[in-house]
Amino acid sequence: MKAMTWSDRLWTALFVLLAGFALLLLVAPSLVVIAISFEPRAYISFPPSGFSLKWYQSLLQNRQLTDSIWVSLTISVYVALIGLVLGVPAAFAAVRGTFPGKASLNAFLLSPQMMPGMVIGIASLFFGAYFAFRASNAMLVAALSVFCLPFVIRITMARLAGLDPRLDEASANLGAGKLETFARVTLPQLGPALLAAGAFTFIEAFDNVTVALFTSDVRGRPLPVELYYLVQNDSTPAIAAISAIEIGLSFLVMLVVARTVGLERLGR
Length: 268
Prior knowledge:
Elements: H1 6-36, H2 54-61, H3 63-96, H4 102-110, H5 117-130, H6 137-161, H7 165-173, H8 178-207, H9 212-215, H10 223-233, H11 238-260
Helix pairs in contact: 1-11, 3-6, 3-8, 5-6, 6-8, 7-8, 8-11
InterPro entries: MetI-like, MetI-like_sf
Domain ABC transmembrane type-1: 69-257
Protein name: ABC transmembrane type-1 domain-containing protein
């Protein structure tokens, strides 16, 4: 094996340094928020002057916030399920379909990912107003499903592209129908990708504020919208405690995916 030259070592060290700095920029803000959530005093400061769980206890006693968390969890589950039900057939059509306009259909299905969430939120609001459909959690589920659908499609497409189509052909040659082939051959191979797609969709739907701000029900607001209004009138570490819970939930979902599926398997 050829030994590394001094220039190779220099570029390797520079790359590691830049990668570590980028990782620090990504992780450090979350760590600061989590640290602030344990501040015992009634105002935000960093570093915290001590350690206290009173802001987490106050969240449990705040009925409005607990209701918002429940609303967000419910909406996120619905969005994830709708995304899987619609996204998997769409991915099949995009990867294995042979029909005119396939490229245009793929661009149309993935276009919501290219748009800011605020654009989709405002468009959903005006679309609902045109048909006398007021802002509600049903509208929020529909808008978030449109916004998150490309996540499911792209992940499923990546997995489908790596599958051997000869397995389906072999199943058909043995007498299995298309539905049986999908259920017994294709679906088990798609399991890791579907779990990951559902997890990513759940996280995005739970944390999304740009779409929810324009389409959610004012009487049952999801957590991101509730936090948006709370930030304007509250400067206590309770805001950091809510944010820390969201960070923890996202980390927990990804940890479950990593332990049960393995993130390195998603592209295989």
